[in-house]
Amino acid sequence: MGALVLKAVYSVLRSPQHDFQTTVLKNPEYFLTAINRVFLAINTCILIILGVTTFWLTKNIAISLIAQSSPFLSDITLFYGLLEVSPEPFILASTLLFALLIIAYPYKATIETSLFHNKIISADLLFVISFSFISGFGIASKLTFIPLLLIPLVVLPKFKNKILFIIGTILSFALCTYPIIHKIGWFFKAFVFPLLAHDGLYGAGEGDIVDVGAYMSNITYILSNNVFFSILLTSSLCILMISFGVPRLRRVSIGNINFTSLFAVSLSQLLGLVITAKHYFHIGSYSPLDRYFLPSVGLSGVSLILMIFCLKEVGNELKDDATIPSLFHKMGHFMTTRYVNGFMFILIISLLISGVSWLRTTSNNSKFIRDAILEVYHKVEHDYQDYAKIYYSKSSSPEASLYFSHFYDKYNSEVLQKLYENAYYYHFIKGKLYHWKSDIPFEEIVSAYGNKIIFQGSPLSSGDLIIDALGITPKKHDLILNVVYEGTIENIYEVDIHSHLKNETEHSSEGS
């Protein structure tokens, strides 16, 4: 999708001086903006389809609004799913399509009657194919989608359908990753297996599967910072335990598709919580990796809908039972009346208003951050044009972003080195400095640029400690770093070098 957008934009911006590759790499922000708008349009269309389809099936405006509210129930889905250029907008799209299938599945007979009069395909097979394709696409977008695969495995009836779903998902994943299928083995070896076997981010850290202390702390942090999700998950688990645990209600819950779907959604959310907690915090910082939790919180809307359906099933059972106390009769009548829909409607409107308000605040904050980033960018471009620029964690420069993606694909090395010859990057996990084609010793940068070296990235505790903080310890140099720009989100440090190498160079010059 991104490649198609790039090609379309380039056809408008085509320049005789530069080819496609150079034009994109010279103007990354322009092309990223175009991609973001396309991603936003895709998710908007999916939300419209979700709302219209839900209303067509349920004939209930409140339920359709709840279905469409999912992105607005958490700042995680709003920020990462709608505002960024990353895999998360596709993860959000896949999650919303999953929600559509979950809501539609109890109405499969209606769908079969309305859409397939001549029985070209059964409704069950249609849902198997749909779940398979979306699952393969979601996993290809990001592995954080994997917990959602539990939903069709639980919901789809018959063992045959589950096997077909697994085979279909594998085929869909292969299709969606076809352009990089030759690198799948490398990806699992270099990324997935280390990720499972180490307790640090991206396969770094100690050789333990999990750091138990940090793990429990992360779970507590996730639940406390996603209050609405925690309330929904707790409520759904309580409904399920009561419905399956109370003998009187088992005849309603067991075999009922709404209870089965709620169980599947809750199970996938719990698995998402368990997986996310393993790598929730970034190495060396206190910034949580909220984006990993997007698939789980993205199911909040459909979870709320399923709870309403389940409560109505319980209400229908209770209101007609003369053997139970009158209080439960009243509860049963309440749960089957329109008061529930009215209450949920008010709740969702409140959450939507809150989400829109948060989005406005985030937009203002983003403008503030953008202005701060541009200030740093212009200062570096104007004052340090002929300097070696070393970028590190959370640097806002385009070069730093290009470096991050470049680690996974060296295809553009030649062009990048030509366009950004004096740009370097420090990889915080590998502990090495890189210059587009390969890693490079710090001494080589000093030899080429002398004192004309700057570091740009997130503020550190002390400019004098930046080398230790980055893990760079040149044996031949004593470094003094002066803060020449102190910003709100990042600093610029200028290097002052007193080196043995410099002295050796002077002596050799005198000798000659």
Strand order of the largest sheet: 4-3-2-1-5-7-6
Look at the helices and sheets and give the structural class: alpha/beta
Rg over C-alpha atoms, rounded to the nearest angstrom: 27 Å
The average pLDDT is: 78
Q: Give the uncertain stretches in residue-range form.
A: 282-286, 499-505
Number of domains: 2
The 3D shape can be described as elongated
The largest pleated sheet is described as: 7 strands, mixed
Strand content: 5-15%
Beta strands, count: 7
Number of helices: 24
Helix content range:
55-70%
Termini distance?
Answer: 61 Å
Transmembrane segments: 38-57, 63-83, 90-107, 127-151, 163-181, 227-247, 259-280, 292-311, 339-359
Keywords: Membrane, Transmembrane, Transmembrane helix
Protein name: Glycosyltransferase RgtA/B/C/D-like domain-containing protein
